Amino acid sequence: MKTSIATVSISGNLPEKLEAIAAAGFDGIEIFEQDFIAHDGNPRDVGDMIRSMGLDITLFQPFRDFEGLPDPLRAKAFDRAERKFDLMQELGTDLVLVCSSCHPNAMGGIDRAAADFHELGERAAKRGLRVGFEALAWGSHANDHRDAWEIVRRADHDNVGLILDSFHTLARKIDPETIRRIPGDKIFFVQLADAPQIEMDLLYWSRHFRNMPGEGDLAVTDFMRAVVATGYSGPISLEIFNDQFRGGSPRTIAMDGHRSLVALMDDVKRDEPGVKLDLAAMPKRAVVDGVSLVEFATKGDEATALETILETMGFSRTGQHISKQLTLWTQGDIRIVVNRETTGYASSAYTMHGTTVCDVGLNVGDAAKTVSRAEALGANPFSQPIGPSELDIPAIRGLSGSVLHFIDDASGLADVWSIEFEGDESQQTGAGLQRIDHLAQTMSYDEMLSWSLFYTTLFDMKKSPMVDVVDPDGLVRSQALETSDGAFRITLNGAETHRTMAGNFLADSFGASVQHIALATDDIFATSDALAERSFKPLPMSDNYYADLTARFDLAPELLSRLKAGNILYDEDAHGAFFQFYSRPYAGGMFFEIVQRKDGYAGYGAPNAPFRIAAQKRLMRPKGMPRI
Questions:
Q1: Contact assessment for residue 8 and residue 34, using Cβ atoms and an 8 Å cutoff
Q2: What is the pLDDT of residue 280?
């Protein structure tokens, strides 16, 4: 099945768009009329340029306000169509999209519209061209694919077919199962777009908030399942209107688009096993069973300071790499690697970002299959020379050039700790920290959709609704992704300004990925006491915070006193309670979090974030003071 994307979907001039689309692996493009008009090349040259990049022109669009017009407007509409047919032939494409009319003088009536399309089909046939009719969700008379199909059916012409667009169907909450009744050979083209579920004017929603399949809330998979059940085997194409994408990187957006189509059609193939799809096989989404390791790239005094923090949190140094300057720190099921190498990837990461999380290892069922799926989705593989007795652990590039390693039991990769490290993990004593609850990655807001798509198409994870986190100096958007059992959780935090703590971290670290690591305990008060004995310095919270807790929650005085004594924050939801406290900021704004979830609490303490951020900023360098 061929993949395609409308040129309007990404930013740049026409050559820049085409280069990005070709590099992403698409088979073709829908050429949007505005993109062609803005270009200074003639139609034949444009067609040749497109084909020279290995792309087909799958569709020319849009042709507007055609059907149902009274004369002389009707005659003028056919004259306009003939001119577009001339252009199509010079470009070298045979299909034009005609969207349902919004003209104020357009008259309704299925038979009237069908007669117009029959005549248009006759004219197109003489030139070897085809006409596709699409029902806009806001069309004056045809705003439902069922009405559009009836018009096409009554037009009864081989050169006239239906064009389906997932947004127009799903935004109007039309059951996509009705598509199954349409003959597949009369569906000439399929356009796909997702969108967040927002109640607003349909036209405005469509023109500003469309995104890639899997990035929004619409049932695009159900829509496409119904389409393939008809026997449709033509191109699947993206038509995206999004303000954020218009200012983004063409290559990134094109890559995301191709990734979304590959993942979508893989889902469709698995959910509709009775249909035959011309798709390359790929492994299913990987199931992540927790974080195996977090590796810091660091050097000198910064490395010493980091290890001091780890010691005060109850971590024990339980291993030394057999040939590299890597030390292993453990507690419970948590492994943190401190990398002081002066060459190789970690050294480069330190040079770029300062002390940073350069590598995250994930426990998966099959490491090789995980990388295979990642590469099929357009991820970049990672490798570097390995030394004697070292394991070749599969890996890919992640956010900001960081690395994701995949470790499984079946292939023996989980034995890396006993093979590559000398020491004894049984020496650890600990302070009650058991596992990594979640990792928090910081990025620019414009990157959030891209990385949400990356994780949810590669791993078996679900996303939570995006929430706003109020920083004293701006707004940060946050979205949580997690596996069904909570074994792997990650929060994506999008900064829109450098004045926020998240934005300042990005600026100071030149785009480092992980800003904080949340560690789980089963008894936060015992852990707090144990850390105090080790001289751990928690983030100090104001008395005002605890006074407000009394008003917000019905807490026993004894509990409130213990919370205040340990600088522990509290939240609760319909399921249970949440406790959290923090380290003080280190290495330019990174920090650790200690959490305890009780009785199925599902959140991340978002109501506490403004107070935590304010407390952290009180300990960091003043506003306007440059980093030295």
A1: yes
A2: 87
The pLDDT tens digits of the residues spanning 284-315 come to: 999 999 999 999 999 999 999 999 999 999 99
Distances (CA, A) of 453 to 33, 64, 279, 378, 422: 29, 33, 20, 12, 39
444 and 587, same domain (yes or no): yes
Binding residues: 134, 165, 191, 239, 438, 516, 593
- Interatomic CA distance for residues 519 and 489, integer angstroms: 11
For the ranges 232-236, 254-258, 447-451, 502-506, the lowest mean pLDDT is seen at 502-506
- Position 427 scores a pLDDT of 66
State the average pLDDT over residues 190-200: 95
Q: DSSP code of 510?
A: T
208, burial (CB in 10 Å: exposed 0-12, middle 13-18, buried 19+): middle
Mean pLDDT of the chain: 94
Here the CATH number for the domain that contains residue 461 is: 3.10.180.10
SS3 of residue 72 by DSSP? coil
State how far the Cα of 585 lies from the Cα of 587, in Å rounded to an integer.
7
Q: Which domain holds residue 178?
A: 3-271
Counting the structural domains of the chain, the total is: 3
* Cβ contact 285:459 at 8 Å: yes
Would you say residue 188 has pLDDT above 80? yes
Q: Which helix (H) or strand (E) holds 543?
A: helix 543-552
Torsion over CA: 560, 566, 571, 576 (sign):
negative
* C-alpha–C-alpha distance, residues 368 and 168, integer Å: 39
CB 99 within 8 A of CB 139: yes
| Amino acid at site 29 | I
My answer on whether 237 and 352 are in the same domain is no
> Would you list which residues are annotated within the binding site for a divalent metal cation?
134, 165, 191, 239
Q: Is residue 146 located within the same domain as residue 253?
A: yes
Predicted model pTM: 0.93
CA distance 273 to 518: 41
Residue 597 forms beta bridges with which residues? 578
Q: Which residues are annotated as a binding site for Mg(2+)?
A: 438, 516, 593
Same domain, 315 and 204: no
